[in-house]
Amino acid sequence: MRSVVHTAAEGLISRRRFVGLAAAIVALQACSKGPGKADEAFLASGGGGKTVDHDAWDKFLAAYVRPQKSGINLVAYSAVSDGDRDSLRSYLDRLQKVAVKDLGRDEQFAFWVNLYNAATVNLILEEYPVASIRDLGLLGQGPWGDKILTVEGKDLSLDDIEHTVLRPIWKDVRIHYAVNCASMGCPNLATRAYRASLKDEMLNAGAKAYINSPRGFRLGDDGLVASSIYDWYQVDWGSPEKVLEHARSFAAGKTVDLLKGRTTIDSYDYDWSLNEVV
């Protein structure tokens, strides 16, 4: 009969197997990210005429998001002052007191995107310095499933906002260019807060910037390489052919030639390193 007392080596092997299994499960989930059922508590009715003050987030973005010549927006996390950290936390506190049902549909959209992005930046600042957002959370799974926010009495995670509010309610693939995961491979964190009046302008700008960047599409040794976003969330487009059709609608310059005549994507890639100013 096997002893119930494990040696230190056996314990280490067991932990490694557990971590490996957890990583495999996370990887499997990342390959099939369909939108969840829309959270009925936050269905965007389009009614309500109230607005939300996003000036504090605007000021933070203007101060610390640094556009690079490469087209990538980096964040100067190390430069954020104590006062601006406090202001960011106060902004998040104020957002969590908003009655979402009192907002119009586009105002609600801006609310959720700004809440997601500001909360993500705050998570990085709380643990900074970190090499990747995936270093946060249990077993290196990232913070996306952690209940870190409360809106209208309901505890929410970043995944809840993206997969049970934004994606299923708005059904707009451009959402993937709006929410930012603090990584080099991710679409840019915008240099200004989302506003109801700027919704389509900012979504289109985000799509164009990403699609025409090597982060979105590039030529690799074995053919066309696309961002893993188009693999993880392919269900939102429908197929690789639909992804390419979408990308061509925003393509400019060299990307037009890169995507011309393409009918498939040969591989996918993503850079999880932190989107920080070095």
UniProtKB/TrEMBL annotation:
Residues 101-211 form the DUF547 domain. PROSITE patterns: PROKAR_LIPOPROTEIN. It comes from the Bacteria. This is DUF547 domain-containing protein. The lineage of its organism: Bacteria, Pseudomonadati, Pseudomonadota, Alphaproteobacteria, Sphingomonadales.
